[in-house]
What we know:
- By secondary structure, the protein is of the alpha/beta class.
- The protein is about 20% helix and about 30% strand.
- It has four domains: about 30-90, Sandwich (Immunoglobulin-like); about 95-165, Immunoglobulins (Immunoglobulin-like, Sandwich), CATH 2.60.40.10; about 170-240, Immunoglobulins (Immunoglobulin-like); about 250-440, Glycoside hydrolase/deacetylase (TIM Barrel), CATH 3.20.20.
- The chain is built from eight helices and 26 strands.
- Strands 19, 20, 21, 24, 25 and 26 form a six-stranded parallel β-sheet that branches. It has a four-stranded mixed β-sheet with strand order 2-6-5-4, with no helix packed on it. Strands 8-12-11-10 form a four-stranded mixed β-sheet, with no helix packed on it.
Amino acid sequence: MKKLLYLSVVALIYILFGIFYYWNPILLVQQDPIIEIGTQFDPYENVLNIVYGDIKDLKIKGKVDTNTPGVYSLTYQYKDRKKTIKVTVTDSKAPILEVKNVKTDLQEHITPELFVKNIKDSSKVTLSFENVPELKKKGKQKLNILAKDIYGNSTTKKVILERLEDKTPPEIKNKKAIQVLQGSMEDFASKIRVKDDLDPNPQLELDTRQVDTFSPGIYSIHVKATDRSNNIVDQDVKVEVKENPEYNKKIVYLTFDDGPSENTIKVLDILKEYDVKATFFVTGHAPSYNDFIKEAFEQGHSIGLHTYSHDYKNIYSSTNAYFNDLDQINSMVESITGQKSDIIRFPGGSSNSISAKYSPGIMSELVKMVNERGYQYFDWNVSSSDAAGNDISKEQIIQSSCTDKFDQINLLFHDSATKNSTVEALPDIIKFYKDRGYKFYPLTKKSYVVHHQTTN
Ligand SMILES: [Zn+2]
């Protein structure tokens, strides 16, 4: 009797559960989940089971944008049974803030950003000082940096600001004489190493009037460096103009930027016909013509680096971006010729001002950095003007290219599919210089340099 009663109760429970699950077949892990911004949320993973059913027949309506806080509605539908839940995306995490103490002079403009080493949050963070700081005060003071995201989560970190009266002038670190090759056009400011204890960027003024780059010898340039607290160092830096065996020899360095292209082979044929050597500053634009780079190299022409992408917006966005691109083009050149290149031409030349749009001051930094990394960069002192448009006539190019103003000429051409008149003008230009006793050399790191004045 007892056993029968027990079995009936069990059967009844089964029946009740059966009815319940018939009406509510969708079992979820979380009814109304709350998830953190930026994390993953898969609505299917929130399904525990479909009782007497298959998850394949489950439909889900609604979307959760896990990158935007808010309340989202999701409807699970299995046959004619529906279940709607609310998914809340919140940003409840405070920004992760790493700070550093700052020691500076009394001139620097103090902002909360100066104290930040690193900051992380899923949404936008604004920085402020929690207490009202006396930013002009001399000596040490404790400040609280407050980082607050747009959902009101905040982190505070203590920092120390130390303001000193800067009485130490910058130091000029050039120990050895700056060496230049006789006849070179040099941007001396790029060769001055200046350091200040508190101002990362002292102003430089140079007086180079004593230097005669055409005559070998030791000269001085007068350098004046001023930090923002107006401490001044006045110092002479030696310049050694080294004898250039090629000086007075009348040399033309024919240089072709932007290739390879379908025209490279025509240029190579002309150079071969007149038995002259040139330099190609190549890009990664047209890999289908990379065989021409190999051919140029094998015929004794120099291969230089013009950047892989030639994309101003990218290469001049930061010094890192520039060098990443330069490594890329140099790897390409090495894979073609078997040897890395150490000569560079900047897109737009070192005097380009377009780069200022992407990173103010970048050219002044790059001209120093490429030197430090073992490269030499070359600008030009004669332009063929073939980049002034696509319809520059052969006659115009010849006229712009032919001059006897200089004994040593770095002549700028462009190698691209649209520059047919450059190819047509080339034989006459070569004849002009041959008739006047010029030799044609490929550029090497040691060649005579033309450096424009940087403007950014
Ligand atoms: Zn170019």
